[in-house]
Design a protein that fits this description.
The protein has 291 residues and is an alpha+beta fold. It contains 13 helices and 5 strands. The protein folds into 2 domains: 91 residues, Beta Polymerase, domain 2 (2-Layer Sandwich), CATH 3.30.460.10; 193 residues, no CATH class. Strand 3 and strand 4 form a beta hairpin.
Length: 291
């Protein structure tokens, strides 16, 4: 499908529309959907199908000021902009690109220390393993951003493998051990995928499960087992963060998360991991402050 046809086929040629995600960055796989944003001041996400291709439709505003959202507009392609408002937004964002990226990276690392502390202080809590894995994925977010790459869960592990060795990237080996990537097997990934889709259905109230299933099938069919494990865990991390303040009101969720995130049950090991992640996140914030 031709990218420029998307706005026309969705009858959006008179709207402000941009293409983001991996399709805009040129790092894409056959399983990847098209990510477009309609700048109509609304919120929410919908899934469309055009010529057998999945299109995830987000809503945004040209007056956006949230760095976390603006960072996602990096390298966005304009599909329709009759009022030139999107051009103005992207131009201003580009001028502050490095500042925005560093701000979001720092916030990810600070959030990682929060989750690691939460795990350390409540190590006997059933959710301690959840907080630990969230902290590990958030550190990955920070490091990927500090390496000027996008937080694209399908591709992040491939990015990480290619990063040059330096005083920041050296921490990836510790983090991947905490994540448990070496545990990825076809049978485990099948169970993780089913639970991840179930958790997505519970928290997102969208059609994201269709995308998760498609990516799971592609990654496992192409023997990208570690990438699939990382992807599934990352999607769960995002959904956990969206309900971080209310998750304890739904203790039943731990049962689906045990499989969806392949959780560790050894409290001694968990405490060691939480302490390590807290130390790494703090050191990275320190390095960033004095860069």
């Amino acid at each position: 499908m031709q990218v420029q046809d998307i706005a026309n086929k969705l009858s959006l040629s008179n709207d402000i529309v941009g293409l983001g995600g991996c399709k805009a960055h040129g790092t894409t796989l056959e399983c990847c959907e098209y990510d477009i944003t309609i700048f109509d001041g609304k919120s929410g996400t919908e899934l469309k199908t055009i010529d057998d291709a999945l299109v995830q439709v987000h809503h945004g505003t040209v007056n956006e000021t949230n760095p976390d959202v603006l960072q996602k507009y990096d390298s966005m392609q304009i599909l329709s902009d009759p009022s030139w408002e999107l051009r103005a937004l992207l131009s201003k964002t580009k001028e502050k690109q490095e500042k925005i990226r560093n701000s979001v990276a720092k916030n990810s690392l600070i959030d990682a220390t929060f989750f690691a502390t939460r795990a350390k202080q409540n190590i006997d809590d059933e959710f301690a393993a959840v907080w630990t894995k969230c902290a590990a994925y958030l550190i990955c977010d920070g490091l990927v951003l500090l390496n000027s790459k996008q937080r694209s869960p399908t591709h992040m592990l491939e990015f990480i493998r290619k990063f040059q060795k330096n005083n920041k990237n050296q921490y990836f080996s510790n983090i991947t051990e905490v994540l448990g990537l070496e545990r990825a097997t076809p049978s485990l990934l099948e169970r993780m995928a089913k639970s991840t889709i179930g958790f997505s259905d519970m928290t997102e109230n969208s059609s994201h499960g269709i995308i998760i299933q498609k990516k799971y099938e592609y990654l496992t069919a192409n023997s990208l087992l570690s990438d699939c494990y990382f992807y599934l865990g990352y999607i769960n991390k995002n959904n956990i963060i969206s309900i971080r303040d209310s998750i304890h009101k739904k203790p039943e969720l731990i049962h689906i998360l045990k499989t969806a995130m392949d959780l560790e049950h050894d409290t001694i090991k968990l405490e060691q991991q939480a302490m390590l992640l807290h130390k790494i996140a703090n050191e990275l914030v320190h390095l960033q402050n004095y860069a």
